Amino acid sequence: MITTDNGSRIVRLGAGAGFARDRIEPALDLARRGKLDYLIFECLAERTIALAQQQKQKSPELGYDPMFEARMRAVLPIQREQGFRIVTNMGAVNPAAAGRLAKAIAEELNISGLRIAVVEGDDVLPQVKRSSTRFLETGDPLSTRSNELIAANAYLGVAGICEALEAEADIVICGRVSDPALFLGPLVHEFGWSMTDWDRLGTGTLVGHMLECAGQVTGGYFADPGYKDVADLGHLGFPIGEVSAAGELVVTKLPGTGGCVTAATCKEQLIYEIHDPRAYYQPDVIADFSEVRIEEVGQDRVRLTGAKGSPRPADLKVSVAYRDGYIGEGQISYAGAGAAAKARLAGDIVRQRLALAKVDIDELKIDLIGIDSLHGNNLGGSAEPYEVRLRVAARVKTQTLAEAVAREVESLYTNGPAGGGGVAHLNREVIAVQSVLLPREQANAVVTILEA
Amino acid sequence: MKLRELAHSRTGDKGNRSNISLIPYDPTHYQHLREEVTAERVKAHFRDIVHGAVERYELPLIHSFNFVLDEALGGGVSRSLSLDTHGKALSSALLEMDVSAPPGYAPKHRVAAGAVATPTAHLPKAEDFLLWPPNVQAYGYRIVDKLFNSRPIRKGPSPRPLRYGHQLELSYQTANGACSIADFIDRNALSGLLVLKNGQVVLEQYGLGLLPSDRWSTMSTVKSITATLVGVALYDGAIHSLDDSVTKYVPSLLGSAYEEVTVKHLLTMTSGVAWNEDYTDKQSDVNRYSKSLADGVPGGVFALLKALAREHEAGTHWRYNSGDTFLLGAVLRSAICMPVADYLSRKIWQPCGMEFDAFYTLESPDGLEIGGSRAGIALRDFGRFAQFMLDDGVVDGKRLLPDGWNDDANRHAYTFSDADRALMPQIASGALAGYGYSWWIAADGAMTAVGFAGQRIYINRAERLAIVTLGAFPQPGYRGPDEHDRVAEVVAFTEAVKSALGSSGA
């Protein structure tokens, strides 16, 4: 923590990852040069947790983030030199196994005295199964999916993280907590903010919201050549949030890294994945971003002020994952004059074949990549491209049917229009994710400390 | 203009719901975007993609908007069959929306100092469309859809191949002596030349860099196509009778000079409404009409037409009037209950096996098709349309036009007088004798669609012959004192084609 000239304290939070498979080296640069108090890795999307659950079903020692080991091996030696603390949700559905692995890596690297906190309690599958709750999205009772349920994880707030930091943990490994909570937790801990100081909690939520997607606030997911140019995206720097006790946030990044932090990048990230700006629901507060002001205060330095909050909701949001059949997919390419007509003909053939073979299909999508695959015919281009790739995707009940869909595309090689090449096919199980609400008393964080 | 010129955007996803931000580059454009980019317009823009409600949230302190689109992601990231399961690319699609320019808008150099130089295509000025110099005509007529709001006329799944006969060879006489087909193209700045005889292509030539896939500006030749669509709608029963009052379909014209005008009056340019079609006078009705279209003012042309005075009793006097054809488009739109472009696609473009998507330009962003000017069509598809007319509107044995429609369309509703010839020199030069259902009737009886700067579809039903000429005739300010009459030369060429191919029945 830095103390400024006028005596106010500044906490420096670095974002080390914005999603599970994010780059590692910008996090290491932040770790080395960032003078960080905390390095935070946010790696757990809605669907990631269901995939992790499937891993855990294969082996009880799996089910944490697949890049956890690589990240820990790289960052632990730097942490020992620099002294920052790590907070992450890379524990996914098995924070305890991730904690044991971190301990083993530390011992292997001769790092001793490392305190590792494991935060659990988000797995609420038993509670949800007992309840008569309904899905928020479709309104269907959860019981309609009771046979296919894989996982139900509540979005926990900062309580477990704060408890772990109080217990002097160097690393806090969580499962499902709300993404901003990974950042809000350290701020509550450092500044001793009251859990009923709704404006402060709203401000800390803003900090987390701005930083949790890492490179998305420093010029990633932003460049539009000629309109929004961003320099050196190959060396994109990850963000640092400097937060004062009063809740003023400056977003910045390390000198010498690529990208940029501007009012424009911050505006895009402020509105990213929120709905009503006045009511951003979180486990510990309902944050209000509607009166946030954004100003550039220096090169790659943007100040955000004016976040507020109102009392936390009574219920926690729970992500429920369930099996929902399979998707079978095949692709094939056509080139030159008439490419689109050939691809259309090929699509018609596959449609006809699937009907003849009586493949029972829940939903079928036939795309011409290069013409209409993203936004359909209405918005899609009318100009004839040089090459077109046909893509047929179908949602079906079983893997066998999914393979049948892909096979019908592959058989276009010898049975379809002239010049079709480059077939690719895949099939995957569909893990659908919907949400339910759970009274907050039914999900409580449980903290365990391991020591290396 | 495209929204992309004014604002940037980012998409996020939660379940089956997408949120798209909209952030103007210039904060002073916030109010303008607030009026232009409403939740309703965004919903219409994404009508094929978004199945739920669209809600707009305003963030005035950072001059930004947040659009939340329900049921927009094909069931959500894990269930969606879409290639872009998160909907990440939806922000780019939003920025494709057409909006009007903010008051006093001047494009700024947006690239930050020290940024990399960016290759940029500069486009010709849309409002000078009828005044361009020859070098800009040759380029600009190919990219009309980049300059104006447009709506595609979709082709069907597979084009109908053209049949090709023996290559036509001929020469024709001019004041400068005998000329070849190549001379014909060079002397008249032609971009496309297609001759169809007995259902076969005997000549297909491209000039000025035109490619088969380019959609050249139709200019006013599209009037005849829109008029033909009225025939289709009549056969369909969507239009009850040509003697129906225009106000039956467009009630907002009640109380205007159009109150006693029928559909047939519009078809034959005999509305009797006062109208000045002088392209060189900036204050003429046609140029005020053009200005409204260039600015994309929703309802602007209607306001203009409603204010026109009555000059003659309807049906008694002929006057060439682009406003009347615009109204014909509005009548169609109301009668068929779908965009005119979609109807043309369904009724003619798809059945005829057109090879390329064509387009109508629009009165305003997402607005009504302009039935009477500057659509865009590829040369071969002009030919397929001509063949459709030669086949009497019958495709694969299926009739699409009323029996006898072409006879009526091809009949003089009005026969030109010497006064007309004096007033419109192109009538004499073009050997035109009269006017039918928005077709000019040539002295040899052929039905002819004629447009600005050399566009012409000549359809001689007696000889089973069609000649399409696309061109960029230089406009008055760019012509030398001794240049030949290009309209007359096209007639001379037509006569040479007729004699080279002999009479029908071969």
From TrEMBL, chain A:
Protein name: DUF1446 domain-containing protein
InterPro entries per UniProt: AtuA_N (IPR010839)
Acyclic terpene utilisation N-terminal domain: residues covered: 11-448
One family name in Pfam for this protein: AtuA
TrEMBL record, chain B:
Taxonomic superkingdom: Bacteria
Keyword annotations from UniProtKB, A to Z: Hydrolase
Keyword Hydrolase recorded: yes
Domain AtuA-like ferredoxin-fold: 1-99
Pfam families for the chain: AtuA_ferredoxin (PF23544), Beta-lactamase (PF00144)
Compositional bias ranges of the Basic and acidic residues kind: 1-16
Family matches, as InterPro entries: AtuA-like_ferredoxin_dom (IPR056362), Beta-lactam-related (IPR001466), Beta-lactam/transpept-like (IPR012338), Diverse_Enzym_Activities (IPR050789)
Segments of this protein annotated with the region Disordered: 1-20
One annotated GO molecular function: hydrolase activity
Domain Beta-lactamase-related: 193-489
Protein name (Swiss-Prot/TrEMBL): Serine hydrolase
